[in-house]
Amino acid sequence: MKSTFLFDRTSYLLLVGSIVLILVGYFLMQGGGSDDPNVYNPEMFNAQRLVAAPGLVLAGLGVALVALLRRPAAQN
Question: pLDDT tens, 28-43?
Fold first, then answer.
């Protein structure tokens, strides 16, 4: 009986890449706050935190979905 793996090397690489994308997205979201709650800091609402970081997280989730749903190549 031949044993086959559910995922191949490409699927695992895509999964690791998606984890990296998600972590980079969360890293870009951090910061921008103020030490004093009575002081307004406009850096909290820049494009990096409102557009780029959530886009990276969503892209990472999309890559993870592709990695999980792709069918490995048939091995003879």
Answer: 999 777 788 888 888 8
